[in-house]
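Input/output pair, single chain:
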Amino acid sequence: MLTNLQAQPEDKIMALMAMYRADPRDNKIDLGVGVYKNAQGVTPVMRAIKAAEQQLWEAEQTKAYTGLAGDPAYGRALSGLVLGNAVEAERLALAAQPGGTGAIHQAAELIKAANPDATVWLSAPTWPNHPAILRHVGLAMGEYRYFDNDTRGVDFDGMMDDLKGAKAGDVVLLHGCCHNPTGANLTLPQWSELIALMQDSGLVPMIDIAYQGFGDGLDEDAAATRLVASAMPEVLIAASCSKNFGIYRERTGLLMAISEKADQTALTQQNLSSLNRLNFSFPPDHGARLVTMILEDDALRADWMAELEEVRLGMLGLREQLATELRARTGSDRFGFIAEHRGMFSRLGATPEQVAKMREDHGIYMVGDSRLNIAGLNRTTVPILAQAIAETGV
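Output:
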């Protein structure tokens, strides 16, 4: 039987990681993997997480299963962080998931069960795992223009024109903030225009929010998601705690499903719980419990928010430094977009050949589409990257 298996496409980021590890150069720079690192190149355990783990170690009395949808307190805490008071609790079905990826996969399963004829529309470009998951589940996909390679901003007119071709019941997959892989985001007025189009066309928004707090602040980064949630009859939201709580390996995510009417929520919740049962039975709890403890404790929450703000401001400082270094080396403002983008990523607009040349000549590793992880830099390596970009003629 197993001899009939077909080789699967190689994950480009995993392949890049392997190339980086095999490179013997001491001055190599990893800008590929989407993981936050501090100035010492370490992904730290946040202070509030360590404090919560200590409390949990002393107080936890059992490792028994939680409910199929996870601990309700976790769902309430994280949905409150993302949505605020944007939607009535009675319209909200919640299910804990193994990371944001698990939430995306489960949302795709829910779409397939509710409307197997739906097309899911993706931004061009998007996170590579989005189309991979949708393809695996068996959903049709469409693509809307998003990134303008000339301006390195959003091609909003192209996006709106493409989505006019979507049919009622189709799903539009959107990045709530800190677009991955480009770093270019819609403005709130543009979000309002997009909402009007989705309302008129009968489209269902699905929001992937994996970087809340990494862009302009916790509430600012959630503003677009809250706007959509308050305006649309049905919304799917996949949230991740990997980045903003620094608990990548704990696989802590949440799928939120907003129904049009409160009397539909129970059926939606039952389906979410059933999908959890079929896929992994009970979701992991350790990370979810830590997140719940932090969000429900004033002192822990304040310390977490303070450290998250340090992370956010640090990345903004690196963006501004890189834009300044590039201006000095190129005599041009064409890289000013780097300071304007938000989150961990920016897309330079370099060709695959230029990306390969920077890797070969300078030991700089970024994804072939020229997505670079700002959090992979520090104040010492920024000038090295700027010089490589300038010498390569990006």
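The chain has two domains: 11-44+310-392, 65-296. The mean pLDDT is 96.
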